[in-house]
Amino acid sequence: MRASINQTGRRMIPSNELSIELIDESNVRFKWDFNNLKLNQGSEAILELTSIGNTERISIKSDDLSMPGELTIPLDKYVITKGIIGRLKVIRIDSDGIRYILNESKTLRLENDKLEGEHGKSLLDVYNDPQLRVPWQLVFDDGEPVLKVSDYHENAPKIYTNTVFQTSILPEVMRQITFWLLTEDPDESQNYKVSLWWSLVEELGLSSEDRIYFTGIITKNLEVINEIMTKCQEIADSFAVKHNILQKLSNYITEEEQ
Amino acid sequence: MSGLPLKYIGRFNSFGLAKFSSLLRLPMQEVLEGISSLTSNSEYFELIPCEMEIRPVENRLELAEILHKSITSNIKLKKLQSDQGLWSWLAAAWMPALFENSPRSAKIGEQARWILDLQKTRYYRHLLAGPYFIYNHHLPNPKKALSILGGSAIVPGELVGQIAASSDIAFSVGAEVATILYVDPKTGKAKKGSGGAGPGSPRRLTAAYLNQIDLTVDYRGMSAEQVLRILPKEFDKFKTE
């Protein structure tokens, strides 16, 4: 059974117990139906909504959260209503005023973001991170892989257009994602993209026996890690072959020479 | 350059945005020479009646005040607060004023400074929309966010770069904490030493502290004084200066 308490001691609120969705361009609906959320008298629930140019904190009475319910939140103060994200936190306030987080949700994304289009919904989101000191880095935010790029290398911000950069890094990105899947066994129920990544990796040659074998070993020794790394390289190679990576690179160089 | 009172402002169409983008790739002198032909050629933009005075400004706060006054008093502009064509035209129109009496280090820089890029990690770099969004959020007391509104409008500086890059901090009490730590209340300018990366620096405040405790402490619900009380000792030198 997957642990529901993370390394910081916070208890995670299952993502299927709460949601945010756009009602129209002026209102968001927050819905909840908690199975096992215990709120003491001294605790307080805060819903934080964030979008570009705004952050809003909405205090919700503990009594209200004990029953399934919903709350309509007007967006008239928001500069941009695209891509609003949310986070519910249950707080305990100490006598010295420090607000400790007892429970929290994963990042909530608008379920029917009609304003957002496809932005942010790709399998692998790419962000420019000005603080990054390498051309690119794969991180795993909110239980899904996210590719960060920087201005550190002149081609890195051109991930969508620069053939050399794309072809150089994508097989390695695929290798790292496979390694993450096989070693971390991320929870598919918490993020639908995880299921899509598993499907892709299986399509590229990971058998269900291999998946069960690798993810089933709780304590992975060096020998198992080496086996996983070999498997990840095979998947990355399949990806490169399937997407004609070498051919694309070769064509690009030939065109450049002409 | 004295003040330039406008009776209308523009909103670049896609043709205008493409022209602006091409112009920004040229050397700075050519950009400055070519910009007025772009903001005066009505083929490139839609006209919106609006009163605004374009003039050299002391800092980002003063610029944001002017923008806020014009935009919030105009119903059409209020609806276009996130419009790329509007912000890009405004940036083009303000360019000569921003460069006037500017520090030597002033440069055209990356396109995101002039053409609004609505990616979460880039929008704050826009020289006009960046301070406007922060000012708008921190009303009625935007001076609490002087750490990210006090820098030069054309060369925002290291302090702005560090704090504004983290929207959780820039749009919360984090901005006020940074103001108390790093802005000299007498001059309204960044304190000496606040631009580095060493102990107690803004980089440490964001990456090594606030973004870390965010996992376990709801610091955004605390007052600036309460947050200051729990900061590690490395920040003490900025508390007392």
Can you walk me through this structure?
The complex is a heterodimer of chains A (258) and B (241). Chain A is of the alpha+beta class and 258 residues long. Chain A has 6 helices and 12 strands. The termini of chain A are far apart. In chain A, 23% of the residues are buried. Chain B is elongated. In chain B, 44% of the residues are buried. Chain B is built from 13 helices and 2 strands, in the order E-H-H-E-H-H-H-H-H-H-H-H-H-H-H. Chain B has helices spanning 14-23, 28-40, 60-72, 75-79, 84-99, 129-138, 146-149, 158-164, 167-170, 173-182, 202-213, 224-230, 236-240; strands spanning 4-12, 45-54. Chain A binds chain B through residues 8-10, 46, 48, 50, 52-55, 57, 79-80, 82-83, 89, 91, 96-101, 127-131, 151, and chain B through 81-82, 110, 118-123, 125, 133, 136-137, 161, 165, 167-168, 171-172, 207, 215-223, 226, 229-230.
Helix content range of chain B: 40-55%
The whole-angstrom Rg of chain B is: 19 Å
The count of strands of chain B amounts to 2
Which parts of chain B are unreliable, with pLDDT below 50 for 5 consecutive residues or more?
Answer: none
- Order of neighbouring strands in the sheet with most strands of chain B: 1-2
Summarize this, please?
With 258 residues, chain A is an alpha+beta fold.
Blueprint of the fold:
The complex is a heterodimer of chains A (258) and B (241).
Chain A: E1 11-13, E2 18-24, E3 27-32, E4 43-51, E5 54-60, H1 62-65, E6 69-74, E7 85-93, E8 99-105, E9 108-109, E10 125-128, E11 136-141, E12 144-149, H2 163-184, H3 192-203, H4 208-216, H5 222-242, H6 245-257
Parallel strand pairs in A: 1-8, 10-12
Antiparallel strand pairs in A: 2-3, 3-6, 4-5, 4-7, 7-8, 7-9, 11-12
Chain B: E1 4-12, H1 14-23, H2 28-40, E2 45-54, H3 60-72, H4 75-79, H5 84-99, H6 129-138, H7 146-149, H8 158-164, H9 167-170, H10 173-182, H11 202-213, H12 224-230, H13 236-240
Antiparallel strand pairs in B: 1-2
